[in-house]
Design brief:
The complex is a heterodimer. Chain A is mainly alpha-helical. Chain A has twelve helices and two strands, in the order αααααββααααααα. In chain B, the strands form two sheets. In chain B, strands 6-7-8-3-9-10 form a six-stranded mixed beta sheet, sandwiched between helices. A four-stranded antiparallel beta sheet of chain B has the order 2-1-4-5, with helices on one face. The chains are: A mainly alpha, B alpha/beta. The A-B interface holds A 163, 166-167, 169-170, 172-174, 176-185, 284 and B 51-53, 72-75, 77-78, 82-83, 85, 89, 91-94, 98, 101-103, 105-107, 147, 151.
Chain lengths: 287, 233
């Protein structure tokens, strides 16, 4: 029974990792951009939520109404003003720019918020749980998982059923020809980054509600996100969810064996999968 | 000169390599112009320049009284110039119908719609849900043409329209051509088969090493003129 409980907790944790990873997966899928600053942007969103909650006296979930559009706007501006200048055949320049951005973000957050750990307090949600049979499930992990599934479903629907999604896929396939169809690449990229950071904002708020965070935690979250993306296979959002869940379960099982093994177990499983299936389980993109 | 498409002293470069030298060319409304010439003569470069995939001096290319040489491809597409690129270049992750729909992305109004394209190429209606990569070369060319038509262009450019296609398919494509240009759309056709190119066009330009080596009415140009213009002998 204990082990089933571990499995369930791992799956729910996987929802959070899938949220981290969805934005990464989206921008890599559309424009082959590896965003090293993704984790820091997520932490930045958590701090934005913190400030919103403190100033307006709202709960973290309500702060999403402000943080999500704000991050989307930042994403569009970031892409148009900075990243589009270095996008091209070579994927190294944009990678280096996001690396620099990561350093700048971390230090700006450190300057503004200090290194003290913070948490987005949800009062009720923090401790509330629901009994399902013999298991006690925290409301927050359940909600996180539900939001992750809903968001990935929505992104998937957008990708395959809307004109915007068609534009994303066409641009991903062939930028020149997409441009011939009247799609301005710079704008399409801006929209993709806006959408990715909107998802990242949700991830950041849920991260902040679940664990304490400080300006330096972006890096490890980025690695979890990358692992979920790679395990699931590049460019496949449902695969990313599966990757997140696998990573969550691996970590939960690891920490059950020995609390110190949580992170290690996740990395070991990731490496094992990388060795056996270098392209992940459900790849859509030949990288 | 005509006030439709006018190209004046167009120079195009790939890095240090110059592909077009002071090229002059014009197309009148609803005219079909053939561009012939050996490989590397600059035919594709010309089309890439007009469509905005290669940026040039603003004044080198004028479209309906407006300088467009400096515009991006998406801006040029919005003005009514469409390109059917060499090698079809369909979007592999899009279905046949999605490939066509994305051609309509410019939102230009006109006679061409999804229904109209399916009427022109009925086989595409049958295959509309399939991935574009699952089609034969000829069917892919139909999608590429339909995709360009969906933008309701006033000028449509075909780069190597029959390259790599079976003769029977080439005939099908050419049979469809009058239905396309019959409604006043101007066309520019790059074609390896000179006889074909001359038979469907009203005027022809022959390019040689980035320059116009011959220009004239398609019926007036003799074989000897062409071989001289082609090979420079």
């Amino acid at each position: 029974m204990d082990w089933i409980n571990v499995l369930i907790q791992g799956i729910l944790l996987g929802g959070l990792y899938a949220l981290f990873a969805a934005g990464l997966s989206l921008i890599f899928g559309v424009m082959r951009l590896v965003n090293i600053a993704h984790g820091d942007l997520m932490v930045g969103a958590a701090y934005l939520g913190l400030t919103t909650c403190a100033t307006l006296g709202v709960t973290p979930l309500v702060s999403l109404l402000l943080v999500v559009p704000a991050m989307a706007g930042i994403g569009y501006a970031l892409q148009r003003v900075v990243l589009n200048r270095v996008m091209g055949e070579d994927i190294l320049p944009p990678l280096l720019v996001t690396f620099g951005l990561s350093v700048i973000l971390q230090n700006t957050l450190l300057l503004g918020y200090s290194a003290d750990p913070q948490k987005l307090s949800t009062k009720v949600l923090d401790t509330a749980s629901v009994a399902v049979g013999p298991f006690n499930l925290g409301w927050l992990p359940v909600l996180t998982f539900a939001v992750a599934v809903a968001l990935i479903w929505a992104l998937q629907w957008m990708f395959y059923r809307t004109a915007l999604g068609r534009a994303f896929r066409a641009t991903s396939d062939n930028q020149d020809i997409a441009q011939l169809m009247g799609l301005n690449r710079a704008h399409v990229f801006g929209l993709a980054m806006a959408l990715a950071l909107a998802v990242t904002a949700v991830a950041g708020i849920f991260l902040g509600m679940r664990t304490a965070f400080d300006p330096s935690v972006g890096g490890t979250r980025l690695i979890f996100g990358f692992e979920a993306v790679i395990i699931g296979g590049l460019g496949n959002l449902w695969g990313t969810l599966a990757g997140g869940i696998l990573l969550g379960v691996a970590q939960a099982v690891g920490s059950k064996i020995d609390p110190g093994w949580q992170v290690l177990a996740g990395h070991v499983v990731f490496l094992a999968i990388l060795a056996v299936r270098p392209k992940g389980f459900f790849p859509r993109i030949e990288a | 000169m005509y006030d439709f498409l006018t190209i004046t002293a167009l120079n195009a470069h790939y890095g240090d390599f110059q592909a077009l030298y002071d090229l002059n060319l014009s197309i009148a409304p609803s005219e079909v112009v053939a561009i012939i010439g050996a490989n590397g003569a600059g035919k594709s470069t010309l089309m890439r320049s007009i469509s905005g995939l290669m940026r040039n001096d603003a004044t080198a290319i004028r479209w309906k009284g407006r300088d467009i040489g400096h515009l991006r491809a998406d801006q040029v597409a919005g003005l009514g110039i469409a390109l059917v690129p060499e090698g079809r270049q369909l979007f592999p992750s899009l279905s046949v119908e999605e490939n066509l729909r994305i051609g309509g992305q410019t939102g230009r109004r006109g006679p061409w719609s999804l229904a109209r394209v399916y009427q022109l190429f009925p086989i595409l209606h049958e295959r509309r849900r399939q991935p574009s990569t699952s089609l034969s070369g000829g069917q892919q060319q139909m999608v590429a043409i339909g995709r360009a038509l969906m933008a309701n262009p006033e000028l449509i450019m075909f780069d190597e329209i029959s390259l790599g296609l079976a003769p029977v398919v080439i005939r099908q494509i050419y049979d469809a051509l009058p239905g396309i240009v019959g409604e006043g759309m101007a066309a520019m056709i790059v074609e390896q088969d000179i006889t074909k190119a001359l038979s469907v066009s009203t005027r022809a330009y022959c390019l040689q090493e980035g320059r116009v080596s011959l220009e004239g009415g398609s019926n007036d140009i003799s074989r000897e003129d062409i071989s001289r213009a082609y090979f420079g002998v």
